[in-house]
């Protein structure tokens, strides 16, 4: 039986953290909620619905 590594390498975790940082920066730069960019870590149905309503109201997108 061979031993197999579970989880991510240190390099993979750094890449994941950098990607998360990039999503936050794009979100801030363009004024778009992070959930619209696919970052759903802290998303709930309630706050996504609220983000959508506010975003559409602010940008006149009925």
Structure description:
The protein is mainly α and 62 residues long. It has one domain (10-58). Helices cover 56% and strands 0% of the residues. The chain is built from two helices and no strands. It has helices at 10-30, 45-58. It is elongated, with a radius of gyration of 17 Å.
- Identify the overall geometry: elongated
What structural class should be given to the helix and strand makeup? mainly alpha
Total helical segments: 2
Q: Give the number of domains.
A: 1
* Oligomer type: single chain
Task: Give the low-pLDDT segments.
Answer: none
Distance between the termini: 59 Å
Percent helix range: 55-70%
Radius of gyration computed on alpha carbons = 17 Å
For the report, how would you describe the main beta sheet? none
The mean pLDDT is 83
Please state roughly what percent of the residues sit in beta strands, choosing from under 5%, 5-15%, 15-25%, 25-35%, 35-45% or over 45%: under 5%
SSE diagram, text form:
Elements: H1 10-30, H2 45-58
């Amino acid at each position: 039986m061979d031993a197999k590594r579970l989880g991510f390498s240190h390099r993979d975790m750094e890449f994941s953290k950098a990607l998360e940082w990039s999503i936050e920066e794009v979100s801030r730069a363009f004024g778009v909620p992070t959930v619209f960019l696919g970052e759903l870590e802290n998303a709930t149905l309630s706050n996504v619905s609220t983000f959508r309503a506010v975003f559409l109201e602010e940008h006149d997108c009925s």
